[in-house]
Specification:
This protein folds into 2 domains: 175 residues, Beta-Lactamase; 58 residues, Arc Repressor Mutant, subunit A (Orthogonal Bundle), CATH 1.10.10.10. The protein has 11 helices and 5 strands. β4 and β5 form a beta hairpin. The radius of gyration is 21 Å and the shape is elongated. The chain starts with 6 loop residues before the first helix and ends with a helix.
């Protein structure tokens, strides 16, 4: 692997930040995951990073079915990670659930042997030193994200270039997070085929309005309202209208 310049030296280059930000802006044009990964890889190259992984997931998801990955690193890393089902033992994910501030991997306390194993696996695939960048959602939404940036160089993130990189990494993490939410929203709209009237009903449910209130507001019968919700629940594959409204809110549909 080609030796990287120290972070401080990279950050002093006149066009460092402009180049990275210019690459990040291309994410808005990414039509699919392959193009998004291309932007992630290009941004990492501009930042001087050897490896990156972006993970988007819903909090409190014991099945781990909500986890989505974008990898600008050896895919074997993700395959091995999933084979061992290390989601709940990953200290970097756990950190991102409780914090919004980026943190160096070495500053995140490892409480168990499994957590140390997770970090050791990452080190084998370009994350010998790491920067963990949470990308939380606003309000009561539970989908969150975390950007993991890695370098094969020990203590890469420990010099005076760190502050400049942290700002850029935060921008990249939030743009990746917003891209994923928009992507999943479009997938959900296409698969469920929700109408504008459906979304209006879900908005009322999200606001805590009763069937009677919604029926009066929309000049419909309560039975008609309940039937509409039942059909939407089936389309979205959820057990009840509260969950349907939460799902719609998660992906910015309401």
């Amino acid at each position: 692997m080609q030796m990287r310049k120290p972070l401080a030296e990279l950050a002093r280059e006149p066009a460092y930040s402009d180049n990275v930000l210019g690459t990040i802006r291309l994410l808005a044009q990414a039509a699919d995951e392959a193009q998004a990964v291309g932007v992630l890889a290009a941004a990492c190259e501009q930042m001087g990073i050897d490896a990156a992984a972006f993970v988007s997931f819903v909090r409190d998801d014991p099945s781990h079915e909500s986890f989505r990955f974008l990898l600008a690193c050896d895919p074997v890393y993700c395959l091995e990670y999933e084979r061992r089902a290390w989601y709940t033992d990953d200290p970097w994910l756990q950190y991102s659930l409780k914090h919004t501030e980026p943190a160096r991997g070495e500053d995140i306390r490892l409480a168990t042997a499994k957590q140390r194993d997770v970090v050791e696996l990452a080190a084998q695939f370009g994350f010998r030193s790491a920067l963990i960048v949470p990308a939380p959602s606003s309000g009561a939404l539970t989908r969150t994200g975390v950007l993991c940036l890695g370098s094969s160089a020990p203590a890469f993130f420990n010099d005076e270039g760190y502050l400049a990189l942290k700002v850029l990494a935060r921008s990249l993490a939030m743009e990746m997070h917003e891209w994923w939410i928009a992507r999943i929203k479009n997938e959900l709209l296409e698969s469920a085929r929700l109408t504008g009237e459906d979304l209006l009903l879900l908005m009322h449910e999200r606001l805590g309005h009763s069937t009677k209130f919604i029926a009066t507001k929309l000049d419909m019968s309560p039975n008609a309202i309940n039937s509409r919700f039942q059909r939407m629940n089936a389309k979205l594959g959820v057990p009840n209208r509260k969950t349907a409204a939460q799902l719609a809110a998660e992906y910015g549909m309401i």
